[in-house]
Inverse folding.
């Protein structure tokens, strides 16, 4: 059976165009971006938004942050990761999280 990932909530774009003209072509494009971003994991989301920002050019980071509801630092990190070699595997860096309740080791 396929593993079902919980979907992220669908962000409503806060740009002026979407607020004033919710049925415009721009508003529809923003909804498509938000639907796609909602099904991606953290790393994929960063890379996708970084790629979009790179394609759009100047002012894109601020605009995409407003459209997708993410931090501008997240998009900047995605741009930085696009320039690096792709490393498969973990989505998050190791470490962090809660410490184990019991120390692993021999029990006598």
């Amino acid at each position: 059976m396929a593993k079902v990932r919980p979907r992220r909530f669908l962000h409503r774009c806060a740009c002026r165009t979407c607020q004033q003209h919710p049925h415009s072509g721009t508003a529809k494009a923003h909804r498509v971006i938000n639907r796609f971003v909602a099904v991606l994991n953290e790393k994929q989301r960063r890379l996708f938004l970084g790629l979009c920002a790179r394609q759009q050019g100047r002012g894109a980071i601020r605009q995409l942050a407003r459209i997708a509801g993410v931090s501008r630092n997240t998009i900047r990190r995605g741009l930085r990761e696009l320039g690096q070699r792709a490393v498969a595997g973990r989505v998050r860096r190791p470490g962090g999280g809660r410490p184990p309740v019991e120390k692993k080791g021999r029990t006598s």
About this structure: The chain has a mean pLDDT of 82. Residues 42-56 form the longest helix (15 residues). The two ends are 40 Å apart (CA to CA).
